[in-house]
């Protein structure tokens, strides 16, 4: 059980004075005991480097990493009591599953006898349902089985921290979902503080207690999955999180008494001031609609915007469909139920509840207004909109 | 029907008359006939000759002597001396080349400055024509002008120049040194490539598992390299036992047989003493030893194929 702190950590590869590459830039993250932190971001954002610094495989150029308040910068990886699951599993190919699992226990300064180690190996193997594979070599296992062995090798030592470096990236889509759930379950069972790296936002959203979103080595936002989805700190987070991508339009804001009047190329609408926490002091904004929040004008009554569009492609996804359409000012994507009768070429009008509209400062790209969740939206005047 | 179709049809017709058991061997017939003429026939001829007292200058007067040539191998002290030389040559040469080559390979792997230049330079002994390499060593070991004598004098190991190549006590060692120089780079390269073949993540996983640098070497590096090292070891044995040029250029196997190994002795028996029968019997001995080494080589090689 460990309280992990990453405090002002910077990592520069190469010579910092000359042509060094800044992989991580003044990063601070506080991970409470037992928390499941996901480091999320595009390739090269510094998330894996951060993980490796926590594990001791890389040294920070600046800043401190602390476990329960103790600085561990100078403690070698092998003495940090941290377990790591690698993307390619990194199982020892010349050892059996049993030897792979027991390897870490045999390296520790503990008084475990061979019998005790063997018993612990069997326990963990049963927990992961790989007990029949104990005498096999990694090459004889399927990807999912290898993944379980890699997990087993991590949990067997009951380390202070779990680190996961894109552990699901090498598995097929189906297996990825099952293993995702299993890792989540496993972590809550053993309650060990974990840091998990992925570039897959869906994976991050489902598995994390806390998400740290990184870009270009800088922390963009630290928050719960709900927070990063509904109140993304900036445009980057808003675009990175959520699928399909958020629809974005540039617009102008004017103050009209009780409301803010928003105007884009396609439409104009009002957002009650009560829905906006801070005063808007800029006129140029970016207006964001989540595809999930859009629906057909005819379906409900709303004071929201009208966006006329022509359907290009309909992608059915079970009970829902993703509709790609073209409006006057560009593409618009919506994800809604009851679109079975739509076909390419049809015209329709989208709308959205004002609570669900995102607004960003066009210049700083910082969030002005996020997506209000149902309970908060109830407090605000709804202008007759059904939410 | 066109001419081509006709030819095709008559070919198919003809081939069908060949029994299936024979037909499958037809495609490899060209290669097999070359193997037969250049490998199998000479072997058979050597086995046959080993039962004769046969002079190279008058082969027609060969006289069947049964196992007499083999009996001579069994009893001749000269030949025993040669066999002992061969054992020392192979054992010392191989082990030294392996230890030295392993260290060189490791240094190259440890990305020191100038590694890429160094790995090219390291290969020079191996790519240099054998006789050239051997001549360089002969020159360096020379009794009156050799740099090695000078070096040993400077270091205070010896008081004055020694004629090493002409001494019955020492003459085996200069060629062994030359051979180590020639083979170590090959082993270094083998070490380097097998080290490079080990996934970096395995070391990281081991570090996270708490392994010390020594434990990483003991439990990751060595086991991951074991088949490559075994293959390298057998290659060293085979190269060493077969070697002829290093000894021949430096000492011609002399003085006496003090620096002769089996291949040198075979050559001398056949082309200096013209005793083809005894030379053939000696060849059979070398043949059997090489067969054993090759058997193990293939065994290990198959294991490697199965493992990865």
Automatic annotation (TrEMBL), chain A:
Pfam families: ABC_tran (PF00005), OB_MalK (PF17912). Its main location: membrane. It is an enzyme of class 7 (translocase). Keywords: ATP-binding, Nucleotide-binding, Transport. The lineage of its organism: Archaea, Methanobacteriati, Methanobacteriota, Stenosarchaea group, Halobacteria. Part of the ABC transporter complex XacGHIJK involved in the uptake of xylose and arabinose. Responsible for energy coupling to the transport system. Belongs to the ABC transporter superfamily. Carbohydrate uptake transporter-1 (CUT1) (TC 3.A.1.1) family. Coiled coil: none annotated. It is found in: Cell membrane. GO terms for biological process: carbohydrate transport. It is a peripheral membrane protein. It catalyses: L-arabinose(out) + ATP + H2O = L-arabinose(in) + ADP + phosphate + H(+); D-xylose(out) + ATP + H2O = D-xylose(in) + ADP + phosphate + H(+). One of its GO terms (molecular function) is ATP binding. SMART domains: AAA (SM00382). InterPro entries: AAA+_ATPase, ABC_transporter-like_ATP-bd, ABC_transporter-like_CS, ABC_transpr_MalK-like, ABC_transpr_MalK/UgpC-like, Mo/tungstate-bd_C_term_dom, NA-bd_OB-fold, OB_MalK-like. Residues 4-241 form the ABC transporter domain. This is ABC-type D-xylose/L-arabinose transporter. Transmembrane segments: none annotated. The keyword Nucleotide-binding applies. It comes from Haloarcula salina.
């Amino acid at each position: 059980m460990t309280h992990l702190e990453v405090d002002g950590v910077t990592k520069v590869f190469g010579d910092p004075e000359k042509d060094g590459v800044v992989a991580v830039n003044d990063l601070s993250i506080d991970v409470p005991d037992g928390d499941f932190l996901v480091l999320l971001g595009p390739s090269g954002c510094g998330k894996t480097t951060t993980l490796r610094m926590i594990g001791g495989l890389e040294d920070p150029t600046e800043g401190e990493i602390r476990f329960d308040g103790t600085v561990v910068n100078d403690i070698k990886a092998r003495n940090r009591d941290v377990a790591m699951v690698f993307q390619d599993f990194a199982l020892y190919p010349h050892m059996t599953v049993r030897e792979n699992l027991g390897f870490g226990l045999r390296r520790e300064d503990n008084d475990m006898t061979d019998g005790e180690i063997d018993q612990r190996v069997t326990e963990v193997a049963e927990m992961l349902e790989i007990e029949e594979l104990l005498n096999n070599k990694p090459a004889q296992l399927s990807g999912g089985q290898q993944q379980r062995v890699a997990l087993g090798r991590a949990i067997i030592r009951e380390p202070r921290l779990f680190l996961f470096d894109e552990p699901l990236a090498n598995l097929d889509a189906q297996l990825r979902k099952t293993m995702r759930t299993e890792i989540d379950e496993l972590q809550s069972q053993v309650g060990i503080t974990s840091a998990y790296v992925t570039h897959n936002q869906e994976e991050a959203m489902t598995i994390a207690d806390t998400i740290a979103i990184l870009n270009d080595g800088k922390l963009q936002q630290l928050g719960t999955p709900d927070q990063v989805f509904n109140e993304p700190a900036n445009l980057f987070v808003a675009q990175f999180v959520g699928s399909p991508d958020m629809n974005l339009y540039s617009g102008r804001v004017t103050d009209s008494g009780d409301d803010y009047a928003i105007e884009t190329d396609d439409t104009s609408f009002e957002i009650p001031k009560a829905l906006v926490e801070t005063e808007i002091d800029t006129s140029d904004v970016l207006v964001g609609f989540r595809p999930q929040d859009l629906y057909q004008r005819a379906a409900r009554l709303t004071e929201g915007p009208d966006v006329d569009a022509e359907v290009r492609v309909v992608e059915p996804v079970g009970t829902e469909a993703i509709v790609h359409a073209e409006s006057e000012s560009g593409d618009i994507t919506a994800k809604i139920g009851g679109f079975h009768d739509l076909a390419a070429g049809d015209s329709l009008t989208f709308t959205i509840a004002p609570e669900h509209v995102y607004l960003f400062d066009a210049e700083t790209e910082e969030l002005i207004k996020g997506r209000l969740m149902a309970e908060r939206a109830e407090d605000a005047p709804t202008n007759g909109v059904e939410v | 029907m066109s001419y081509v179709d006709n030819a095709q049809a008559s070919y198919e017709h003809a081939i069908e008359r060949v029994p299936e058991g024979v037909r499958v061997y037809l495609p490899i017939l060209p290669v097999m006939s070359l193997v037969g003429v250049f490998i199998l026939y000479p072997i058979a001829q050597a086995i046959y000759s080993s039962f004769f007292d046969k002079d190279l200058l008058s082969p027609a007067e060969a006289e069947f002597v049964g196992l007499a040539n083999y009996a001579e191998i069994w009893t001749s002290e000269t030949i025993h001396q040669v066999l002992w030389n061969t054992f020392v040559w192979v054992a010392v040469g191989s082990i030294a080349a392996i230890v030295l080559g392993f260290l060189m390979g490791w240094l190259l792997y440890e990305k020191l400055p100038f590694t890429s230049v160094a790995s090219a330079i390291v290969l020079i002994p191996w790519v240099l024509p054998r006789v050239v390499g051997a001549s360089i060593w002969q020159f360096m070991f020379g009794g009156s002008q050799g740099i090695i004598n000078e070096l040993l004098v400077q270091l205070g190991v010896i008081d004055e120049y020694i004629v090493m190549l002409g001494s019955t006590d020492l003459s085996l060692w200069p060629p062994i040194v030359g051979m180590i120089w020639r083979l170590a780079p090959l082993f270094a390269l083998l070490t380097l490539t097998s080290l490079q073949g080990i996934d970096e993540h395995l070391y990281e996983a081991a570090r996270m598992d708490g392994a010390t640098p020594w434990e990483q070497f003991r439990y990751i590096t060595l086991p991951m390299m074991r088949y490559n090292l075994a293959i390298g070891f057998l290659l060293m044995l085979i190269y060493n036992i077969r070697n002829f040029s290093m000894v021949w250029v430096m000492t011609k196997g002399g003085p006496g047989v003090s620096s002769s190994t089996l291949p040198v002795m075979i050559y001398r028996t056949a082309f200096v003493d013209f005793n083809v029968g005894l030379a053939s019997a000696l060849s059979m001995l070398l043949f059997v030893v090489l067969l054993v080494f090759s058997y193990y080589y293939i065994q290990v090689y198959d294991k490697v194929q199965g493992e990865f």
